[in-house]
Each structure stands twice: as structure tokens, then as C-alpha cells.
Amino acid sequence: MSWNKPLPNVDADNQPFWEGLRRHEFLVFRCKRCGRSYWPVAYCRACPPEPFYGNMEWVPASGRGRIFAFNVHRFAFHPGFADELPYVYALIELAEGPMYGTNVVGCEPAEVRIGMPVEVVYRDVTPDGDAAPFTLADVRPVAG
Amino acid sequence: MTHAFSGKYAIAGMAFLAGRFPGKTARTLEVEAVRLAIEDAGLRREDVDAAINTRIESGSGESRGWTDSYARILGLPAKTYFTVQRGGIMTHLAILAATQLLELGIATYVAVGYGATDWSDTRGAGERRQRHRERDGLWGRPHGDLAAASHHSFFASRHMHEFGTTSDQLGMVAVSHRRWACLNPRAQMYGRPLTLDDYRASPFFVEPYRKLDLCLQSDSGAAFVITTMERARSLRRPPIGVLGLGLGEAMRELWWEKRNYTNLAVATAKESAFGQAGLTLADVDVAELYDCFTTEVVLQVEDYGWCAKGEGGPFVASGAIAPGGSIPVNTGGGLLSGYYMADWTPFVEAVTQLRGDGGERQAKDAEVAIVSGHGGEILRPGMCSTHGTLLLGRDA
């Protein structure tokens, strides 16, 4: 498919996350000592930091969460989104704790509510030209 | 008990240009503002021996930097020139740095400048078309998180959800600011009154935000000269003392701390600034608060304590922040209806008020003013981290 929107910025810190999405796995950065989950990359706030995130690891999360806050874009700040209007951009409170910003799909904008349970759905993108394929994690409503 | 810092240093000169300056570079607007600020102080350029530039980088996307400096162009005999910046606390950090240059005896008169061409860069797209584009490092861009409104509106979403704040109450922030702007001949919205019905007719940009919840875009240059209160007293204009300075960061907590979607990082900033000054909120005569969006004003009247948390909506709707209200807020029209110069907008208005230069909008007996700053990089999930509190006062 043709991709006329901004590309994700993949760097060494977040590369495992984007590779996870390619496999249709939603990863969080978890503390090996206490099991607390973080997103994006961060040291565990409860445990001593070991060199180069030594006490942390990327692990699959449930892909479930609830809508914490949301908005409805009715203006395209980038021309690539002109055909998408209106679109919902939301903060998702993941079941593991952290929040993740993404699009709510699979329902009308007017149906979106704070607290609504959602699950991750994967969107595989193959841009034209030199850019590498990538996968985005949207969310859709799911029975609570 | 006031801190030894409180009142030791003073703003001796100030100038700004804001509005539409097609064909002028940000560099040149900054040069002109600094030239005017030195003149305003009654100094000569030979007197200025240190120079600080402020500009927006982090959290504001495509702002162009420049390697040249106003100090070179103006021919200032500056022993040092450097940039400080972080989101919307540029004047706060510049004062922190400048007072240390003065304290250590490195400099005697420090110039601080700012320049931007935000209006010219967005011409033809309407005044509220946001130039602000998120940087590559932020992860929401492929999902359409493209402008400040794309995530700042989460503050409104949460405040409405938790406290029942309404669109009309946000509209009253816009209306209050416009009433002030209509008393400020330099404001971009001067002569253009706004009613709540006008606000209701304003289209949604990023719902719950309408177009009129977003701040303006301006071409601008702004500058001040700071020195010791002792030196400033012998200069041309009434010195405006730096009474207190405080800083706050939401990221000191877990960055998805839910409280940070309905509170700004005011607590530590307020405590430091008011503690140094030996003042309380009741001593503040004029409040110049960072108003990039309407909700930021609601959050701050709560966070500083003019009303309780959650009551900001009814408070602003009561007219409390408008001309004639109990606390004058953003008396020049703010970023919403005056001009966009980030925290320089509240800063220049505070100096104007404390000098008694407010004309029709002059607050009566203004002796103490607060200048707040807000911004910084916006981590997913949408946290705008930084806050600054500056207390300025008329020389006793």
C-alpha cells in the first residue's frame, strides 16, 4: 500500500518494540527483578539500575487496555491524513500499567468513551521506495 | 524570611515586536528587540558584556536554529554568548543563567533575546494553523499525533471527564483573553471582540478543542536586559525586581501518573518561587500564565490555588480572570488573543504591568506579578513535562 504519512522513527532503543509489532507482538519493557512494566524504554523505578538496562527486558504484553483520554482530529496537520478525517487519537492505559498513544479503529468516533476496553490490532504497512516495512498497533473496542 | 536572591537583580530594559513581519528573519527580529531593549534601559551597546539567546527546540518541532548570533550582528562586547531553552520556560532559565553571570561578577549587564517567524511560516493557513510539528523521536506521528493540539487536548479530555468541565467553560477562557486583547492595541486580536456564541460557532480542530482553544501564531522578537537592582536604579526605566524563581517537572514522577493529566508541574515551582520571595498567592496582583490552549489556564488557576482542583471551569466562567475579575489573568490577551512568543508573552506583559505601562488594561496598583512557563518535550503518553514560576515585583 502507498504510505503518504510520517514514518515511525526507529532507533536502537525502540527497535525491539518495532520488531515485535512486525511479529504481531506488543512488547513492554519489564523489570526482571520485580516484574513492573514500562513503555517506552526506562529503568524500573523500584529496583536498582544495572548497566545498560541490564535488569530490563522486552516481553510480550496482553495487548489489552482501556481508553484513558482521546480526541477527534477534524483537521489534517499533515496532508497524508486529509482522507482519514475524522480520526480518533487516544491514550490507552495498558493492562500492564503504561500508557500508549494510538488510533481507535473499528467504531465511529462518536462511540468512543473514556474507560472503554480495547485490544491491539496490527496494521502492516509496506511503504513505497526505500523505507522498510513496518507495523502499527491500533486499538479497537472489545467486550470488557 | 526572604532569600538573599529576592530583589537583588532587576529587569532594566525590555522590548518586543509581535505580529506580522513578512520578509524579516527570526535572527533580525531578535537583533531589533535586543537593540530596543538596550535603548529602553538607557544603556549603550558597549555596556552589555554577556548575551543569552533563547529559542524553542525541544517539544516544538521545526523551529529553525541559527548559528549566527545577535551579539555579533549588534556588535556587543559580550564575554560570553550561549543559548538556553526548554519548551516554554525560556525566560525562567535565562534569568537563572544571567543572574549567575552577575553573581559571579562575570558580567554587569546581560542581554537575553528571542526571535521567531511562526506567522510568516504558516501564512495562508489561518492564524491558528499550528506550525508545531512533532519531531521524529516521538512515536505517535504515523498515528496522526502531529501538532501540539494532537496531545495537549488530552488535558481537556481528562479534565472534562473527571470534573465535568464544559466546552462553554473553555470558551469563557477564550472570551476573557479576547476582552483583555481588546484593551491592548498591540494584540493581534485587538478590535475583534469575541462572544461565547462566536466560540460555539468555531469549528472543532481536535475535538474537544475548537479553533479558538488554540493559541495564535506570530512573528516576534523579544528581549530584556538584566543587572543588579543597585545598578538598575540609576537607569532610565523603573527597575523590575526578580523576587523568586522556581521550576517543576512532571517526569520526576512516573510519567503515566494520572494526576499529571489534570495538573501541571506547578507544586515545586510555586514552592521555590514564593519561598524565595516570602510571598503568598494573595500578594500576586497580576497573573501572566502560559496559555498555549484554554485548558492550561483552567489547570493553572487550580494548581496555583486561586480555586480548588476541579473548580477551574466554573471559576473562569464566572469572569474571575477577565477585566474586572478578582485576579487579572493574561492582561495583554495572552498567547490566545495577544501574540505567541511562548513564555516571553507572559513575561513582557508582567514587566509592562509592573511599570504601569498597561494603558487601558493597567491593573490597579500592580506590585507583584507572576509569569508562568509550561512545555517541554512531550513523551508518549502525552505528558508536557516542565513548568516555571517567576515572580517579578516593582521596586519597593
Describe the structure.
The complex is a heterodimer of chains A (144) and B (396). Chain A is globular, with a radius of gyration of 16 Å. Chain A is 6% helix and 36% strand. By secondary structure, chain A is mostly beta strands. In chain A, strands 6-5-4-7-8 form a five-stranded antiparallel beta sheet, with helices on one face. In chain A, strands 2-1-3 form a three-stranded antiparallel beta sheet. The termini of chain A are far apart. Chain B is globular. By secondary structure, chain B is an alpha/beta fold. The longest helix of chain B is centred in the N-terminal third of the chain and has 16 residues. Chains A and B meet through strand 4, strand 5, strand 6 and strand 8 of A and helix 5 and strand 5 of B.
Largest sheet composition of chain A:
5 strands, antiparallel
Provide the CATH superfamily of the largest domain in chain B: Thiolase/Chalcone synthase
CATH topology of the largest domain in chain B: Peroxisomal Thiolase, Chain A, domain 1
CATH architecture of the largest domain in chain B: 3-Layer(aba) Sandwich
Oligomer: heterodimer
Count of structural domains of chain B = 2
Please tell me the overall pLDDT of chain A. Answer: 94
